[in-house]
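Proteins fold. Shown next:

***
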Amino acid sequence: MEIDTSKSANVTSLVKAWQSESLDARRQAAAQLDKLGAWSAVRNCVSIVNCWEKDSELNPQAMPSETFIKESLQQHLESAAINSSDMAPLEQLQEVTVSNQASFLKKHTLLYVGISGRAFRDYNGLYAFDGARLIHLNSPQANKHLSEVLRSEALKLDQIEPIWLADLLSRSLLPLSRMGFSFRGHFVVEPSSDVEQVSAVTKPAVQATEEGGWNVHFWSQFWWGGCTARTPLLFKHTVVISPEYEITFEPPDPDTKSSG
């Protein structure tokens, strides 16, 4: 079979642009790779950070019981004034799945809670347990709730392994959503050790500020989810954390065509 060298060279050029500093250039490269049917060319350019499989000093807090979790969720539902007669929360809360999540936190246990039924999708996701209550880290008040957790921990964030901190920030502030059997959303990434190619992508990093706060820098790869093969997009993030652990962060819109 004759190889189309012009197409191959074009794909190589687009893969380089896909990893550039300019978000506009990355968007345009992804769109062109889609048209060429070559989205898989970027597959090994970056490595997805998976802290769940890394060793960590797991916090000493015990996991909450299933009964406690269900009672806490019921209180959340009632406080949000959900119409229980329409959505039968007591019945559906019998189907709650819980998994413990590895973490660097010392005073909180991280756990993922899944509730069956579309009516409860806003209550799925990542929670922190401080020994007395559940704190939802994927709620509309994610910034506030995560600030509360970090303030309680009172850790020097520049002394935490940056990958772990970026992973927690991403899972709290950029939660994944399910699209059929796949996920849609952001995955923290770092440069791939298998590819010797110029890339703007850098490893997660934490910089202490003169004011006593921290700037956390990391990159993510956005997967579109669903069954359609579409080139993922790379995004660069900076999360600003004040000395009082207040969080300032503007999530990117993958569907927006503006530069960033």
